[in-house]
Design goal:
This protein is elongated. The termini are far apart. The protein has helices at residues 2-40, 46-49. It has 2 helices and no strands. The chain has a domain at 11-38. By secondary structure, it is mainly α. Keywords: Membrane, Transmembrane, Transmembrane helix. The chain crosses the membrane at residues 12-35.
């Protein structure tokens, strides 16, 4: 049944379609590998940066302390 579709479109177009599909797949894999290598290249992690951040609620008293205005 599929041979009808192959004959109508000719083998050249099916081969071109297959090559394009493989190229798109390889480009996607290459992009993922590139992003993985790029992400691993940074030595400073976000966890090293977080202790230096001062949040506004750091100076608040603990909940068990009764604060009177």
């Amino acid at each position: 049944m599929y041979w009808v579709y192959i004959k109508v479109a000719s083998l050249m177009y099916w081969a071109l379609t297959l090559v394009l599909m493989l190229m798109i797949h390889m480009i996607n894999i290459g992009g993922q590998v590139f992003l993985a290598k790029w992400g691993e290249s940074y030595e400073v992690s976000a966890l090293n940066f977080l202790p230096s951040v001062k949040y506004p609620w750091d100076d608040l008293p603990p909940p068990d302390v009764d604060v009177k205005p």
